[in-house]
Amino acid sequence: MKNVLLINAALTILLLSETYAGSTPDKRMADATPYPLPAGSRLRPDLGFLAFTLDQVDIIMPTRKPRGRNLTQAQHAANRRIARRRVRIEHVNSRVKRCRMVHDASRLRKAGVRDRVMEVCCALHNFRVRLNPWQPMI
Prior knowledge:
The chain is mainly alpha-helical. The chain has helices at residues 26-32, 73-96, 100-103, 113-131, and strands spanning 5-7, 13-16, 42-43, 58-59. It contains four helices and four strands; from the N terminus they run ββαββααα.
């Protein structure tokens, strides 16, 4: 099962998409989810959202190595800066999966139950962040 999470600089979860089957491509899930992003905001998706675009939103992706050539030092440095922020976002994903119901295979087949479990786990993460804030992403 898969979901799309939208995380702000304070590392709280702002948006949770509905639950999709694990074989659904990330881009298709992102296209089906409405994003309440204001104009001029920045989005840092992973490589599963390679062709994803939003109007008036700056999408920051790492530069891929060209075939047969190397990246410049400036491109390497930019990729490292992007990767540092992506690590923080992956930490949020792992904190949500701390609830084993999300991480392990679920046999809950009733409609809407898997979405409710993910909502509760995301709410627990936001509660933990509010009680014990992390260093925000800069």
